[in-house]
Amino acid sequence: MGLGQMRQAHPDAPNTNVLAAACAVLAEPDGPDLLYQRVRRLESAGVFAGTDWNEPVILQADIAKISLRTGDWQTTTIEALSQLRLLAVAKGDYKHPRITARRAHQFMTQVMALNLDLMDGRLNEADRERSHDLGPAVASLYAFELATMGYESILDSLVAEVWRILDQRPIDVDQARGMVIQIAHCLYDRLLDTENSRAAALVDSLFSPTPGCREDPGLSVYNDRLADMQPGALADEAAGFAEAMHATGLVSDYHAIFLRHLLSLDDAGKTLIPAALGLSSTGRDALGCYAQLVYALITECIYAETAQAIYGLACLLERGVLYSEPVAAGLWRQIQLPLSEDTRSTLRAAFGDALAPRVFLLAGVLSLLGQPLGVGQGNNPTCQSVIGVSMWAANDPDYLLQLLTWAARDDEILFRFEGETISSKGLAAGLAKRRPLDVDPVSMILVPHLDRIYIEMGRLCGERDDDLHRWIHPEFYGWWVGQGFRVVADPMTDRIVAHADFVRQFYASYHPEYNNRLPVIHPQPAGIAATDSAGRYIGRHAITILRVALDPEGVMRVYFFNPNNDSGQDWGLGVVTSTHGHGEYHGEASLPFTEFASRLFVYHFDPLEKGDPDNVPETEVLQAVALAEQSWGEAFQ
Fold first, then answer.
1. In this predicted model, what pLDDT tens digit does every residue of 182-212 receive, in sequence order?
2. Does 471 lie in the same domain as 419?
3. Are residues 296 and 362 in the same domain?
4. Per residue in 300-325, pLDDT tens?
5. Given 238, 376, 421, 630, which is the most exposed site by the fewest CB atoms within 10 A?
């Protein structure tokens, strides 16, 4: 009996035999091609059923690399089949119901970027030692993927993908750095015979951003060179580092060596720090007012291993965050904060022992306060907590520092909910059952506590006559959350109720033409009905509404923060979120107003600012409702 027949009779039937056969085929000379031709039938038979691979839109390239290169034979085989499936979708040979060709091509581009070391067919020791001939099999798979995608265009696609990610200015740039490193190997080894200025700019930003490190001499050699540089040469170095950093969002390890060298000089050397950070007059003024604090932060946490935090420091100064006295005081406290053993062990597990755990955490604080929209949830169901971290970093940074102090020092945070104090200590795990290690240092320590607090607030609500987020959000996020609240589905019946009125009220509360031209003053938490590229309902997802404005083409758009690591997504039926090119600031996603309204599930508003719902065009309301009914709304009929 085949797997398909077995799955019809027994949905949980194991696919071990099929994977064993596929693993054997994969190791054959033409194995990837043979599996490519059969991957549609394999999926129809249920080879991915009951696994994460069954939902291709949630797959992540960095995790795919781990599965492919270090997984056991079953994990590697199912990952290989998944990639061959997405390759077929990207090439137009397989029209998949749950992922578009565009998204599949994007994923495959990321995967190939992270495995470019296999381009020349050479295996490292770890690859060679794998059982079941998996090392050569994976190399053969990669060669087939490259040949199918096309060697000539692959570098352009890879470079475009890296720039697309960096345009969003994430705090965690490990994946982007890994892709740039692999591109550098290709350019250096001439594996791709091409001239690509955008690729060279990425590589130069990490390895040779200035005249003093043009040939990537190594950190110790560069440090020796700095001792002999005259003031003019140092000024050229400062300008080069700043230009490369702000152009890409990536920071070279050499940049950290340079900043520490400037601090070791007399006052004349310190005057180059604003130039090395690329500061405007605003940032220079903030640095001038808080010079001793900034020097202490550089001394305590800027090293080659934490060089990326330099960009966070520059952005922090540009935002004027230090002008709030509690923030400056909180950073002085953070510098000398004693960490609990649990905090130290967590940070060591994630970042190693090259530096003290407190150094990595302090560097993470600089990145977060400088880049509130760069934080992400990783592969963890913690969107509610992460939008809180982002919101506080942008709007209430001294409060964020207080929460982090409690979490990192005391293994506990405190909240109040309807007059009752809640402690995270002793609470059961929330939605995330394990501590996240694929996120920035602050989220790693703080989010598990926030996750437990959020769930506890829901428990304390008990049974009420509306969606529980109505009461949780103002207590969890802050006083600025609107006291008005709308949810599109009745919590008791899970049926959509008065959808047109729900959309109309959103227009009247947020659209400048119908809310008396009021801007969004504070970020507002909201919930969307997340959909895949076919428009099918995945689940509810928390985002933050940041602003509503006309884009350069005159289209009214909602600009929002999406904590899911990559905001450029296809939500189906032509609803594709944008991250650049439509007036977005770094880290923002955006959609035309009506399209955003079509995916909205809950939102807050100020009940005393009623707007003008009667003048909202009925055509736009009906368009938003129709887009919802044709997609996620089908799950609520």
1. 788 777 766 555 667 888 999 999 999 999 9
2. yes
3. yes
4. 999 999 999 999 999 999 999 999 99
5. 421
Q: Are residues 322 and 395 in the same domain?
A: no
Q: Which of 50, 56, 62 is nearest to 379 (CA)?
A: 62
Tell which of 346, 372, 398 closes a domain.
372
For residues 305 and 391, state if they share a domain. no
Q: How many domains does the chain have?
A: 4
Q: Is residue 322 part of a domain?
A: yes
Does 326 map to a domain? yes
Contact 250, 205 (CB under 8 A): yes
Alpha carbon 199 to chain centroid, angstroms? 22
Judge if 216 and 365 occupy the same domain. Answer: yes
Q: Which two tokens stand for residue 115?
A: 């495995």
Indicate whether 159 belongs to any domain. no
Q: Return d(Cα 110, Cα 291) in angstroms, integer.
A: 41
Q: Band the pLDDT of 114: cuts 50, 70, 90.
A: confident
Domain identity same for 426 and 342: no
Helix (H) or strand (E) holding 559: strand 556-561
614 shares a domain with 471: no
What's the rounded mean pLDDT across residues 501-521? 97
Separation of alpha carbons 367 and 441, rounded Å: 9
Q: Which of 132, 127, 137 is nearest to 81 (CA)?
A: 137
Which residue is associated with the tokens 């755990």?
A: 357
Calpha distance 572→57 (Å, rounded) = 11
The dihedrals phi and psi of 592, each to the nearest 5 degrees, come to -55, 150
What one-character-per-residue DSSP string does 412-443 give? --EEEETTEEEESTTPPP-S-SS---SS-HHH
Both structure tokens of 565: 């690591």
Note down the domain range covering 419: 383-475
Q: Which residues contact 190 (CB under 8 A, 6 or more apart)?
A: none
Q: Let me know whether 343 and 227 are in one domain.
A: yes
Q: What are phi and psi of 447, to 5 degrees?
A: -60, -40
The answer to whether the CB of 180 falls within 8 A of the CB of 162 is: yes
- Tell me the whole-structure pTM to 2 decimals: 0.85
Asked if residue 307 is part of any domain, the answer here is yes
Both tokens assigned to 122:
């050479």
| 257, 304 Cβ separation under 8 angstroms | yes
Residues 6 or more apart from 573 whose CB is under 8 A from it?
535, 627, 630, 631
| End position of a domain, from candidates 315, 349, 372 | 372
Specify whether the CB–CB gap between 555 and 592 falls below 8 A.
Answer: yes
**29: helix, strand or coil:** coil
